[in-house]
Predict the structure.
Amino acid sequence: MDLKTPVLELIRKASSDLPPDVEQSLKLAQAGEEKNTPAWNVFSTILENVQMARKQSTPICQDTGSLVFYIDYPEGGLEREYKKAVSAAVVEATNLQYLRPNAVDPVTAKNSGNNLGVNAPYFHFNQWDKKDIRIRLMLKGGGSENVSTQYKLPHSSLGAGRDLIGVRKLVIDAVRNAQGLGCAPGVIGVGIGGTRDISYTLAKEQLFRKIGQRSESGELAQLEIKLYEDLNKLGIGPMGFGGKTTALEVFIGSQHRHPATFYVSISYMCWAFRRKTLHIINGEVSYDD
C-alpha cells in the first residue's frame, strides 16, 4: 500500500485542525474569564485563529514544529520503508506549505528547506502483534520545547524529596519558570523514572492522551488532578497575560528507575496542541485525534 498519500493528509490535518478536546478546553477556559479582560481577549484570538486555520486548511501556528512520528506496525514490515514513505510525505507537505521548513544543521546553521535531516523527522518504531498500522504524529513547537525541562530528585533548593510530593514541587517550578514563554495555557506531560533520555520520551508520549484521560494509576491520577489545580493558581494565564487558566491538563507516566537515580522530565505542549493519528486497518484509512 502507498503510505505517502495518507501520511500527507495526516500532516495536513495535524497542522491545520486542533483536536476537539483541546478546542473545547480552550472554550471553557475563555468562559471562565471576565469578558474583555486581556485573558478573555487572548482566548478570543486563539479560538478565531483555530477556526480560520481549519476552514482554510492552513497552519494553526506559523511554527509548525518538529515532527515526531510514533509508528506501530505489524510483523513483516520494514522500518526503512515506513521512513521512506513518511519522508516523502514530509517533503511534499513542506512544498504545499502545510509545514514550515524547521530542520536546521546545528554545525552549519543551514536549513535543509524540506524538514529532512539527521533525526528529522523523529521516529519511534514499535512492532506489535496486530495486522494494523498506526501512525501517530505530534508537531512540537520550538517555544514549548524550550521550556520543557528535566530535574533529578532529591532537589535541595526546592525542598523536594524522592517521592510524589517532590515530583509535584518540580512540576510547579517548571511551569512557574516557563511563564508565558511556552505559549500558555499548556498541556503538561510528565515522565517519572527511567534514564535521562527515556524519561523525556515518556513525558512526551503522555501528550497523546486526550484531555480528561486520567492515568491508570490511582496515585498518579490524583497527582494529575492536584497539579492541574496547583498550576491554575499560578495566575500566569494565556500567553503570560494573567488569568485563571495556565494549564489545560496534566498527564503523568512512570517507569522503573535505577536505585541511584530519580529523574523527572516535563514536556510542555503549547495551546496549539497538534496531534493526530492515522489508522490503516484491512487497507482502510481513518484518522482520529
User: Anything to note?
Assistant: The first helix runs from residue 4 to 16. The helical segments are 4-16, 20-31, 38-56, 79-95, 142-147, 164-178, 196-205, 218-231. The beta strands are 66-73, 122-127, 133-140, 149-152, 186-192, 247-254, 263-269, 274-281, 284-288. Residues 4-13+60-141+274-288 form one domain.
